[in-house]
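Notes from hallway chat w/ T.B., transcribed later so I don't forget. T.B. wanted the structure written out for a chain they're using in a teaching module, and asked if we could keep both sequence and structure tokens in one place. Agreed to drop them here.
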Amino acid sequence: MKEVLLSAANLPFTVALAVLGGLALLEILSWVVGFALSHTLDAALNIDLDHGINIDHGIDIDHGVDLDHGAHIDHGADVHGEAPMAIQILGWLHVGAVPVLILFMIFLAMFGISGIAIQELTGRSLNVWIAAMPAFAIGLIGMRSLGGFARKHVFREDTSAVSHDSMIGLPAIITLGATRKGTPSQAKLKDKFGQTHYVLVEPLREEDVFEAGETILLVQRDGHKYYAIENSVDTLLSLGPEDLSAEIRQKA
């Protein structure tokens, strides 16, 4: 087995599997310490998991797509065949509904395994780049099919799905080190259905610093980043209307 993996004909496929193993280990460790690497990566890329891209008989984007404040399609828009090709490809691959890191790991697994299988079936007679082409295609198909399975059974949207704005006004716990103004960190919270979410947060006020394990209150949202205050009635009452989002003012 070692000879197969270290063969020059299988080098790119072996590298893909090695990267897969490293990413899987990092993802597992991140969950152990309370830091969801896959969700944080999507937040950094500004990919909306709650309102993904849904393509079914054309392009039916139910809740809108916001990629770095670029293309945005309003709720309920039906743009059959009119969306940019990049949006169609991303939707076909389930980007926005399944974490990008998970999709990439699926691709690496399918690419690596299929590439080695192709080379072994042909006696390693194929040029490595020729073997890589069908392996790449199998990787994309695997990403599409297994990503669809993950979307349906793991990251599915159902009646308990919540919007980003609905998290405003909820308490959260800092999970990844101290955060201060201009230096966001990660926090964990539970929505009204008991589902756990990981979000990027930073203090609303310049003077505040929140340490890991500290409970905060989300009061504003800017894209995928939330602004927070100390979770206390006195702090909340000390804020003016301009410091609070419309959602939390309604809850108050």
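Follow-up for T.B.: The two ends are 64 Å apart (CA to CA). Might be a good example for the class.
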